[in-house]
Amino acid sequence: MTFRSAALVAAPLALCSTLAGAADLGSFRTLRSPITAQAETYVVTVTANGQFMPRFPGSDKLTGLAYPSLNVRRASEPPRFAAPDDGFSISLYDEIPELRFGPVVRVQGGRYYSDDRRLVGLRKINWSVEPGFFVEYFPVSFIRARAELRYALNGAEGLVGNAGIDFIAPIDRLTLSIGPRIGFGDANYVRRYFGVTPAEAAANVVIPAAYRPGADVTGVGVLAAASYQWNDTWGTTVYGGYNRLIGDAGRSPITRLIGSRDQWTFGASISYSFNWTR
Predict the structure, then answer these.
(1) Fewer CB in a 10 Å sphere around the end CB: N or C, the chain?
(2) CA 256 – CA 30 distance, rounded (Å)
(3) Helix (H, G, I), strand (E, B), or coil: what is residue 194?
């Protein structure tokens, strides 16, 4: 397991919101603000994040990432629940507490020979930026459903998305959440990360034959998180996730012979919040 700081690879994580505080017991939908609301006052939250994640999609090795993130909201508005694996998003519609939607973006790390020597002969994949659209909905106050549909550019080309449900349990200053996850991609996206051309199979010493996957559900898993608001300004979050590659992604020789179908993620963050008045 290695640890490296990579701003581009870390961007999808830096764009993910942390669980910003403990929720009020009377409302699971939004988290309790530790700072008193004032007119024209904003709450600025600066977060230091660290995460261990697969070196590339399908890898059996982890790499470490360190990155900062920033969140700004009006002090009159309570912070919303956010899972650690959410993409960076901006609400275009949030007129009712139960529903919001808008643009979202992530950055997916690439795949390089330095990640695993067994990749020699396979194509190098540069990092990708994935702009798209998100929607989230609270059918009841303690359950959040969220889905993202994005289009990958640069390293990969194609549609990719994910969806999940979070069950939220606030206990005083502690907020717990857990829920299932599912990921999917179109044929172009899946072939980029999990396909093998005849030329690549001939050049690689591990993979014996070409493999041409199609559009499919790529993985299913679960994510759990715990956030604790220590005082009015400091908060911490720890989380862990598991994703099982399935379908054509799970059957890929890259996954079976070089990497693993089991994909693990672990992370932690510490946040500092303060008031800023215009």
Answers:
(1) C
(2) 42
(3) helix
Backbone φ, ψ for residue 193 (5° rounding):
-90, -25
Q: Which domains does the chain show, CATH number per domain? A: 2-277 (2.40.230)
Strand order in the sheet with 62-74: 2-3, 62-74, 41-54, 262-277, 234-245, 216-229, 174-185, 158-171, 143-154, 128-140, 99-108, 88-89
What is the DSSP track for 108-142?
E--B-GGG-GGGTTSPPB--EEEEEEEEEEEEETT
Helix runs in 204-273, H state only: 247-251, 253
Do residues 14 and 67 make contact, with C-beta atoms less than 8 angstroms apart? Answer: yes
pLDDT-based confidence at residue 39 (cuts at 50, 70, 90): low
What is the bridge-based pairing of β-strands 62-74 and 2-3? parallel
Give backbone dihedrals phi and psi of 268, rounded to 5 degrees, phi first.
-155, 155
Buried b (16+ CB within 10 A) or exposed e, 179-196: bebbbbbbbbbbbbbbbb
State the number of CA atoms in the 13 A half-sphere of 113 facing the CB: 5
Q: What is the pLDDT of residues 60-118, one digit of tens each?
A: 999 999 988 888 888 888 888 999 999 988 888 878 889 999 999 999 989 999 999 99
Considering only CA atoms, which of 17, 137, 130, 133 is closest in space to residue 73? 17
In DSSP notation, 142-193 reads TEEEEEEEEEEEES--EEEEEEEEEEEEEETTEEEEEEEEEEEE-HHHHHHH
14 by DSSP, 3-state: which? Answer: helix
CB 181 within 8 A of CB 217: no
d(CA 9, CA 269): 17
Would you state the pLDDT for residue 76? 81
Coil, strand or helix: which one is 41?
A: strand
pTM of the model: 0.82
